[in-house]
Amino acid sequence: SAVISQKPSRDICQRGTSLTIQCQVDSQVTMMFWYRQQPGQSLTLIATANQGSEATYESGFVIDKFPISRPNLTFSTLTVSNMSPEDSSIYLCSVEGSGDETQYFGPGTRLLVL
Amino acid sequence: GIQVEQSPPDLILQEGANSTLRCNFSDSVNNLQWFHQNPWGQLINLFYIPSGTKQNGRLSATTVATERYSLLYISSSQTTDSGVYFCAVERDNYQLIWGAGTKLIIKP
Fold it and tell me: What pLDDT shows up at residue A101?
């Protein structure tokens, strides 16, 4: 299993600003995943973050808008840049558990952009 | 790409009732997982079930990989079962493809 924490848990931001979300895992993991969940919708994968290499972004997501850092095997950050109201979502990080092939999720960051 | 369809989209039940949620997927997958998202947004993995049947308390799941579907059974529903149930299938590199979810409301 894995225990994941995220900061902040929620935030209200003005359009045009940027917010950095932190994700901390209680064990070393190879891959970390960042998801977006828009209101009332399912989850959409933004990118996969591996330690020591650049993140791999899914179609429709670009590094300039969602830069990701992965400085070590227990930590990652996602920045939502130049925010607009359309970025209002829950942002979740997840990891694959070591040895049990399930994915574990952080509590999410609820972002509202005004 | 792989399509994942869940049914029903919404379900309202009285406490104590049983329910069956379905997940269909369009192609062979490496594995399938069921998640529960509670009303506060926390996602909890319920089952990792690429095939066969598993049970955990009042919940059980069955995946028939050859027919490309999975079922989640909830027996004797409680109000704490309310939330959204997601099915997600895994393609390469541990990336999950998600269904749209089933929103379950259990009334006291």
Answer: 75
* Structure token digits, residue A44: 């959409």
The average confidence (pLDDT) of chain A is 93
Q: In whole angstroms, what is the distance from residue B102 CA to residue B16 CA? A: 18
Residue by residue, pLDDT tens for chain B (108 residues) are: 889 999 999 999 999 999 999 999 998 888 899 999 998 889 999 999 999 999 999 999 999 999 999 999 999 999 999 999 999 998 766 788 999 999 999 999
| Structure tokens, A71 | 């400085």
Q: Is the dihedral of CA B44, B48, B54, B60 positive or negative?
A: positive
CB contact under 8 A, B96 and A45: yes
B98 touches chain A (CB under 8 A): yes
Gap between the terminal Cα atoms of chain A: 37
Task: Report the chain A residue with the minimal C-alpha distance to residue B30.
Answer: A101
Q: Average pLDDT in the A38-46 region?
A: 94
CA distance A87 to A46: 12
Q: What are the C-alpha distances in Å from A73 to residues A69, A92, B39, B52, B54? A: 11, 17, 30, 33, 32
Chain B interface test: which of A4, A10, A42, A90 (most B C-beta within 10 Å): A42
Q: Is B43 on the interface with A (CB under 8 A)?
A: yes
Task: Answer positive or negative: Cα dihedral of B65, B45, B23, B61.
Answer: positive
